[in-house]
Amino acid sequence: MAVRVLYFAALRDALPLAEEAVSLPAGVETMAALRAWLGARGEAWAPLVTWKTLRCARNQTLCAWDEPVRDGDEVAFFPPVTGG
Amino acid sequence: MAVRVLYFAALRDALPLAEEAVSLPAGVETMAALRAWLGARGEAWAPLVTWKTLRCARNQTLCAWDEPVRDGDEVAFFPPVTGG
Amino acid sequence: MWTVRVQVEDFDAGAEGERLQRVSPEVGAVVSFVGTVRGGEVRAMTLEHYPGMTEKSLEALVEEARRRWSLVAATVIHRVGRLMPGERIVFVGVASRHRSEAFAACEFLIDRLKTEAPFWKKEETNDSTRWVEAKEGDEARARRW
Amino acid sequence: MWTVRVQVEDFDAGAEGERLQRVSPEVGAVVSFVGTVRGGEVRAMTLEHYPGMTEKSLEALVEEARRRWSLVAATVIHRVGRLMPGERIVFVGVASRHRSEAFAACEFLIDRLKTEAPFWKKEETNDSTRWVEAKEGDEARARRW
To answer: How far D76 CA lies from chain A's nearest CA (Å)?
Structure first.
């Protein structure tokens, strides 16, 4: 399963990349599992796991952590928004 | 006791005058008493008594019907306001 | 910072909002309300007022808003005379550091203006001319504050 | 009638308000909110966003406002990029027949924009540059709706 992953704002600054294309192993089927898997790739990716207040979006819509992930999705992780 | 009395909007249209200077007899000492006294001067003044929803102001401030009236006051009677 | 005007002429709502925004570097939020004459059956509307008391009552409302919320500036402008459909009647603008105060004070000012400031509307339709009746809902809204 | 824009350029809040007012003879009330960069320690602010999702989330908020209130028109404009103190960040304007709907929908839109639309602010002071933290109060205000 291939997904495109985007990181924004302070989270992006804390990670090695702003954007990546990843192939998910079997069993990574929700946003929570995706986050854990991405964050387990080494020290540089730890903020994905340790930051307590991250939000996520799937296909450009805010979603919950139990949201399923599908092949071809665009997913994003970011800190709470601060616009307006 | 001399007071200046103003009438506005639909009430003014229903009365013979828009404005008058009156000398009050002893005993007419509140806005309610003034209204009753003014309204008792004949058929043409009856709307002052029969209109149920009149409001009043004393010296250009909304007031209650038990507000005392003093010599030299400017008082006004009018329907509920409809600005804005 | 605190402006109240009663006038026959139109006002420039954009310029008034811009002025509120620029009145101090503290301003982070400007909320404004513009009330207009709705079209439809009404061909024209004449606004009568009680000169002197009008300004006094609007100033008292602005004073009360300043006591209740932390505001940086406020402007209330109300037109009088004959207005056509589409024309502006009233402007209420409030500037504050944060938005919640500006929203609350702006709505407070127009709600209370509607029940306390001595203005009366007379509507002209094709058939007739009639004084507008006060709305029950307006009284209820004003009492919330 | 229903406009959402994300842009680097400034906007003309007065012209946007005027357009909302003139969109239909039905309009009797226009409520608008302008948010600006407050002065003080902050020397500049950079607004980042998630292109694509930003427009989508603002459009979804406008859709929700239209379902909840009887509105005639609404405009949401949000700037991105580097802004200086005093500059406008966001415009939310709502036109309706009566004022209560316009006030509610305008405040709903900015409250929910603040917690759902993917914008992030980075502040520059003389000493440092830091990402702005989300405010607890904003979450609480958004949950009221």
So the answer is: 10
10 Å CB burial of residue D9 (0-12, 13-18, 19+) is exposed
B10, B53, B60: residue with CB nearest C131: B10
Written as six digits, the tokens of B51 are 């209109």
The contact set of C with B (CB < 8 A) is: 35, 47-50, 52-53, 56-57, 60, 78, 89-90, 110, 113-122, 131-134, 139
Residue D86 falls in which region: left (phi positive, over 0), alpha (psi -120 to 50) or beta: left
Q: What is the pLDDT of residues A5-40, one digit of tens each?
A: 999 999 999 999 999 999 999 999 999 999 999 999
Nearest to C34 among D21, D25, D141 (CB): D21
Question: What span, in angstroms and rounded, lies between the C-alpha atoms of D94 and D97?
Answer: 10
Question: What pTM was estimated for this model as a whole?
Answer: 0.96
Rounded to whole angstroms, the Cα distance separating D104 from B58 reads 36
Amino acid residing at C118:
P
The nearest alpha carbon in chain C to B78 belongs to: C118
Q: How many residues does chain A have?
A: 84
The predicted complex's ipTM stands at 0.95
Pair of tokens at residue D9: 């350029």
